TrEMBL record:
GO terms for molecular function: monooxygenase activity. Keywords: Flavoprotein, FMN, Monooxygenase, Oxidoreductase. This is FMN-dependent oxidoreductase (Nitrilotriacetate monooxygenase family). Belongs to the NtaA/SnaA/DszA monooxygenase family. Residues 34-393 form the Luciferase-like domain. Pfam families: Bac_luciferase. It comes from the Bacteria. PANTHER family: ALKANESULFONATE MONOOXYGENASE-RELATED, C2H2 FINGER DOMAIN TRANSCRIPTION FACTOR (EUROFUNG)-RELATED. The lineage of its organism: Bacteria, Bacillati, Actinomycetota, Actinomycetes, Micrococcales.
Length: 462
């Protein structure tokens, strides 16, 4: 008998969105079919959540920012004119509404380590995990705007590597609260004995660190996942180190499949060095799609989308600032750039543009023209097979318009992917971590797991 080809694992699909008017593809909000202009209306998101859940998307992944991009001391009207991530609303609050109108789809929020105290944030996430019955994920970010830092009382954005040191302590506090403060059987609900929880099984954590002092105990009881599924998007060397230690899923913005392969293999190797298994991390590539029933239709739709492109928006979004917070002009060679933000993007451009001197403007053009696939559903499926062959586990689908981009992907592309075994037909029951990894809790190799039982010797009477 001929050898059978091993069945391929389905790709995972997240909707990569933001609670704002213009997220990634700037200028598209002006289209008549663009409902992202109504992002303040909760029904916009409820409708999208139902479309995505019907299509068996794995998660809605919400990006977020703590301030506007660019030079904090300069005119920022371009962001307001474009609606470019300002105004924007808090995604973490929105997840509570979406959790009660969905049953299976994962709900991921982005929260910066300096925008919320870890004790308060851990409580919010545990509450959402309870409400959603275990479908919450956290995208861990360290910030990239001087203005965002100023909004939280700092003079400027903390130095790049120091931000990851800060994140290390931040996640350490949350792990202690989520994993170690409550034992699994602490809640007993003993009506006859008048005892809701067993005091001997609820513990203070007494964290004392460089930035935080947190006594505990964690106020919520253990949620279905305890720790949310952990996403991270840093592509710099420091970011990959942090992901190797902490992330369960990494969001990639690689310009091509081979660049993705390098980052995946590098991060997996770092994870093994950190004592984790290479398979403990899944990788999601950000891609947008122009879909046509024929190649000609796809090219026509691409031309229509490009008529709405705002180059001002892309340039403003991709702004690189110097050590003094001033924005580099687009024609600046990347070799002359010294920046505390977007390290991964500048590293990518410096390595992959070899036929000429890479410029700051290349970061903006990349956002517009790269990471998009144009073609028929079959051609798109062919391209996604190449990304999967490079090691990608899933796709963060970037919209042009809401909800149309996602509805079209669901109606035209997902059926072809299912025929090839590249997309799930039904949800796996259980939590988001169960759906992605086949388990509800962090694996023993994860640093958060070391706090299980770590505080059992600290009695509630101390």
């Amino acid at each position: 008998m001929p050898e059978q080809t091993p069945a391929r694992a389905p790709l995972h699909f997240n909707a990569f969105v933001m609670n704002t008017n213009s997220h990634i593809h700037h200028g598209q909000w002006r289209r008549e079919d663009a409902q992202q202009t109504e992002f303040t209306d909760v029904d916009t998101w409820i409708n999208l959540a139902k479309i995505l859940e019907e299509a068996k998307f794995d998660a809605m992944f919400f990006a977020d920012v703590s301030g506007h991009y660019g030079d904090s001391d300069a005119d920022y009207s371009v962001y307001l004119n474009e609606g470019l991530q300002i105004p924007s609303n808090d995604p973490t609050v929105l997840l509570g509404a979406l959790a009660v109108v969905t049953e299976n789809i994962g709900l991921a929020t982005t929260s910066n380590v300096f925008q919320s105290h870890p004790f308060q944030f851990a409580r919010q996430i545990s509450t959402l995990d309870h409400i959603s019955k275990g479908r919450i994920a956290w995208n861990i970010v360290t910030g990239m705007q001087d203005n965002g830092s100023r909004n939280y009382g700092m003079p400027r954005l903390t130095e790049h590597s120091e931000r990851y040191r800060w994140a290390d302590e931040y996640v350490d506090v949350t792990y202690k609260l989520w994993e170690g403060s409550w034992e699994d059987d602490a809640v007993i609900k003993d009506r006859a004995g008048s005892q809701y929880s067993d005091p001997d099984k609820v513990h203070k954590i007494y964290h004392q660190g460089e930035r935080y002092s947190v006594e505990g105990p964690h106020l919520p009881s253990p949620s279905p996942q305890r720790t949310p599924v952990l996403f991270q998007a840093g592509s710099s060397a420091s970011g990959r180190d942090f992901a190797a230690r902490n992330a369960e899923a990494v969001f990639l913005g690689a310009p091509n499949a081979e660049a993705a392969r390098f980052q995946i293999e590098d991060t997996r190797a770092r994870a093994v060095e950190a004592g984790r298994a290479a398979g403990d991390i899944k990788f999601f590539q950000g891609l947008s799609f122009i879909i046509g029933d024929t190649e000609e239709e796809a090219q026509r739709k691409l031309k229509e989308a490009e008529e709405y492109v705002s180059l001002d928006g892309y340039l403003a979004h991709a702004a690189l600032v110097d050590p003094d917070g001033r924005v580099y002009p687009p024609e600046t060679p990347l070799k002359d750039v010294q920046t505390n933000t977007r390290r991964g993007f500048t590293e990518w451009a410096s390595k992959t543009i070899t036929d000429r001197e890479p410029l700051v403007a290349d970061i903006a053009w990349r956002s517009n023209r790269n990471n998009r696939i144009v073609g028929t559903p079959e051609q798109i499926a062919d391209q996604l097979e190449l990304w999967q062959a490079a090691g990608v586990d899933g796709v963060n689908v970037v919209n042009w318009v809401i909800p149309g981009s996602f509805q079209e992907f669901a109606d035209k592309v997902l059926p072809v992917l299912r025929e090839r075994g590249l997309a799930q037909r039904e949800y796996t029951p259980g939590t988001l971590r169960q759906k992605l990894f086949g388990r509800d809790r962090l694996p023993e190799t994860h640093p958060g797991a070391r706090y299980r039982g770590a505080f059992a010797a600290v009695p509630a009477t101390v």
